[in-house]
Design goal:
The protein is mostly beta strands. The chain has one domain. It is built from two helices and nine strands. The chain has helices spanning 48-61, 144-151; strands spanning 6-9, 15-18, 20-21, 34-41, 66-71, 77-82, 93-98, 108-117, 126-137. The strands form two sheets. A seven-stranded antiparallel β-sheet has the order 2-1-7-8-9-4-3. A two-stranded antiparallel ribbon has the order 5-6. Strand 1 (6-9) and strand 2 (15-18) form a beta hairpin.
């Protein structure tokens, strides 16, 4: 069986799995760049609607939260977040983990900077686009705390 799923590891909702990503090609994943991915959620993933609903919180509130990103003079990325008071999450920091058959794509730490719900109907057509800013390859930081301590800028 081919594994083209994507797992989005979050602080508040745990690991959320999407069936895959739409499009003919993936964007280039470069540290310090922003990109968008459109995830789709199919019935082959157990609890796919729950995973979609949890991830939809990021699309709903990340754009209303204030997420500042940038790089210092050495090119090291940083982020600062002020989370929307009505959101169900406490951090926009996520780890993006592609399935084993996605291709030559690694896992990355990123912050969600916005999103859009492209769902036409619930129960089989869930689509969600997330805009993300790449902070680091996942292998550079073992834990969420490690990357927060190194790259999160306080107000």
């Amino acid at each position: 069986m081919t594994d083209v799923t994507w797992t989005i590891e979050t602080a508040d909702f745990g690991n959320l799995t999407a069936s895959g990503v739409e499009g003919d090609s993936l964007p280039l994943f470069r540290i310090g760049d922003e990109f968008s991915l459109t995830f789709f959620f199919g019935q082959e993933i157990s609890n796919h609607v729950s995973h979609y609903n949890d991830l939809r919180e990021f699309a709903r509130y990340a754009g209303d939260s204030t997420i500042d990103t940038g790089a210092d003079i050495r090119g090291k990325p940083w982020y600062r977040e002020r989370i929307h008071p009505y959101s169900s999450f406490t951090s926009t920091l996520v780890k993006l983990v592609p399935g084993s058959d996605v291709g030559d794509v690694g896992s990355y730490w990123a912050v969600v900077t916005g999103g859009e719900d492209g769902t036409k109907f619930v129960g089989g057509g869930e689509r969600l686009t997330l805009s993300c800013y790449i902070l680091a390859e996942a292998s550079e930081y073992n834990t969420r705390t490690d990357i927060e301590n190194d790259l999160k800028a306080e107000l």
